[in-house]
Amino acid sequence: MESGIFHTTYQSDMSLRRTHAQKIRIILFLLFMLAFPFFANRYYLTLANQVGIATIGAIGLNILVGYTGQISLGQGGFMAVGAYAAGIMTARMGLPWWASTLAACLVTALVGAIFGIPSLRLKGLYLAIATLAAQEIILWTVTHWDAVTGGVDALVVPNPTLFGIQLNTDFNFYWVIWALAGLTAILTINLFRTRFGRAFIAIRDQDIAAEVMGVDLFRYKLLAFAVSSFFVGLAGALTAHYRSIVTWERFTVDVSVLYLAMIIIGGLGSVTGSFFGATFMTLLPAILTNLGRALKTSLPFIDSIIPFVQQATFGLVIILFLVLEPEGLNKIWRNIKDYFRLWPFSY
């Protein structure tokens, strides 16, 4: 019987999908994603688009927190940089949506690297407070720099088009979002097969030992902030083009906490976990809202308490995962795969 996974060539050992089961699963997932928009209604397409954007942002945050071990509470602020940069370049400078999106990613990477400078001297809680300060500084700048951002007023972004096709419909933008989400996942997986990714992981495991081995901590910590912020900026830019309107309320500290919860629940240091966490934390409020509507006729008072139930459930889920399964949904998924791979032998 099969007692392990063995490789006879370097090519098979270095492949992204090493077994036939992994290849079959990814093919089935791709077929599902290709067929889904043709059968889903507008509501489910909207949820799918929100999951796709959240997945990109969660992967970006996971690069910094899960893979490099640098705690960040500035996710909402960095997404705001990406959204406002893309919106301003499109609405006021006349750039096409794809060019403004790329430029917004680069701008966000630069801002992230600047706010990553304190990471050389700060760790743990102190670094978390520094990134929280970055969140507040960015939001204060957005709401008070009237000449550029419009202050507290909404920034209207022109509808994105490609070859004359309007993209900001749920069906059309679905392909853009999930194509970029797939590209983000592939780039991130391959990043951690390079010396840069291995340096990030070495810093997470033990930064002093990494420095002794020759890893330039300052360089790689700034690079981690820049790479993470690049993908976070992509999520912000896609939000701007998809919604066609940018407001500062979308990027408060609550958003930073939400994305941190995504990678904790999904699984730190895992691209698959980022997808699981983004899906779970995006669909959970929708499920609770639909459940409240279904019970509204029999329990009229439930409408008024649904927001509080959502907040309580949000906190409870985080606590339960931290206590019962610290490695998140990705660990549960690995356990399920191992069970079927080893069945009927429990060991």
Task: Tell me what the structure shows.
- The protein is an all-alpha fold.
- The chain has one domain: ABC transporter involved in vitamin B12 uptake, BtuC (Orthogonal Bundle), CATH 1.10.3470.
- The chain has 14 helices and four strands.
- A two-stranded antiparallel ribbon has the order 1-4. It has a two-stranded antiparallel ribbon with strand order 2-3.
- A hairpin with a 2-residue loop joins strand 2 and strand 3.
- Helix 3 runs antiparallel to helix 10.
- It is globular and about 60 Å long.
- The chain starts with 9 loop residues before the first helix and ends in a 5-residue tail after the last helix.
- The model has no long low-confidence stretch (mean pLDDT 87).
Strand content: under 5%
Strand order of the largest sheet: 1-4
> Terminal Cα separation, in Å?
14 Å
Tally of individual helices: 14
Approximate helicity band: over 70%
CATH topology group: ABC transporter involved in vitamin B12 uptake, BtuC
What average pLDDT do the residues reach?
87
**Could you name the CATH class?**
Mainly Alpha
The CATH architecture comes to Orthogonal Bundle
Low-pLDDT segments: none
How many distinct beta strands? 4
The secondary structure category is mainly alpha
Q: Roughly how many Å is the radius of gyration?
A: 21 Å
> Shape, please?
globular
| Main sheet record | 2 strands, antiparallel
The ordered H/E elements are: HHHHHHHEEEHHHEHHHH
Domain count, please report it.
1
